[in-house]
Specification:
The chain is an alpha/beta fold and 266 residues long. The chain has two domains: 108 residues, Chitobiase, domain 2 (2-Layer Sandwich); 133 residues, no CATH class. It is built from four helices and twelve strands, in the order E-H-E-E-E-E-H-E-E-E-E-E-E-E-H-H. Helix 1 links the parallel strand 1 and strand 2. It is globular. It starts with a strand and ends with a helix.
Length: 266
């Protein structure tokens, strides 16, 4: 498999080169050691570039900036076939978790269009259940368990949990790993702070299972009707939902960040 080079670029001028390199090294370990055994087309070299450097051909940039539009703390997109990501810089170490999140999703689905058919789901009395029919699920490996509550630490740096291909299994099976940390216990579910997006091919609508601003998971319909036969894309979801994730605003004293700092000896 070809190795993809990804470059972290600090546009804020507030991140030390030592910290940026440490994050790059940790996310590279995550990609090779943790992500690749489940998603075998993934291989990456994570580097660092200065804000005014010319981006070499074929390198996927991850820009760390401020005040992303739409209330998002991170998003990966595509510019004429070249994936890139923007990450919001906020107080504390949440940006590191977001970098991991976006890099994992870029590597698994660089075109933002990968989707998998699986059994439909519904919410009944606040609980998610399988339902008749099939949904076309967008492959965004970190979204369902993206909260810092489910992250882990590599060499003193916080990184994101991600789901495995078994996340789309038709039935749960004992001993099956649905996410790297084991936080996800069944296929096609979300944890507090996460969400899952799909297209209902019968109704021709986009929907999301969301558990962010409510006490229980809810399903909402995206305010967008795709043209018949249109390919589902993460860009459609982002543009028409305004989904505001809370990852970048995770409290600086979250246990994950404290654990990471302790591992660094701070």
């Amino acid at each position: 498999m070809p190795r993809q080079t990804i470059a972290l670029i600090d546009k804020t001028g507030s991140i030390s080169s030592t910290s940026l390199r440490a994050v790059a090294a940790a996310v590279e370990i995550q990609a090779k050691r943790d992500l690749q055994p489940f998603w075998d087309h993934v291989d990456a070299k994570i580097s660092v570039l200065s804000a005014n450097a010319k981006i070499p051909t074929g390198v996927w940039p991850v820009y760390i900036g401020a005040n992303l539009p739409g209330g998002l703390e991170g998003v990966h997109q595509d510019d004429k076939g070249v994936p890139y990501a923007n990450v919001e810089m906020a107080a504390g170490e949440a940006w590191k978790l977001t970098v991991s999140h976006e890099v994992c999703e870029m590597l698994v689905d660089p075109t933002l269009t990968q989707a998998v058919y699986g059994p439909a789901i519904a919410v009944v009395q606040g609980q998610v259940h399988d339902a008749p029919g099939q949904f076309h699920y967008l492959v965004e490996v970190c979204d369902p368990s993206e909260s810092a509550d489910h992250g882990y630490v590599i060499n003193g740096q916080p990184v994101s949990d991600f789901y495995t291909p078994h996340f789309f299994d038709a039935q749960p099976n004992p001993g099956t790993k649905y996410s790297y940390t084991g936080a996800l216990k069944a296929p096609r579910r979300v944890l507090k702070g996460g969400y899952l997006s799909w297209r209902d091919p019968v109704k021709n609508i986009f929907q999301q299972l969301v558990w962010i601003d409510s006490d229980t998971p809810t399903i909402r319909t995206v305010d967008y009707t795709p043209p018949a036969g249109a390919q589902m894309s993460r860009e459609h979801i982002d543009r028409h939902t305004g989904t505001s994730r809370l990852l970048s605003h995770t409290h600086k004293n979250h246990p994950l960040f404290l654990r990471a700092a302790k591992e660094r000896g701070e």
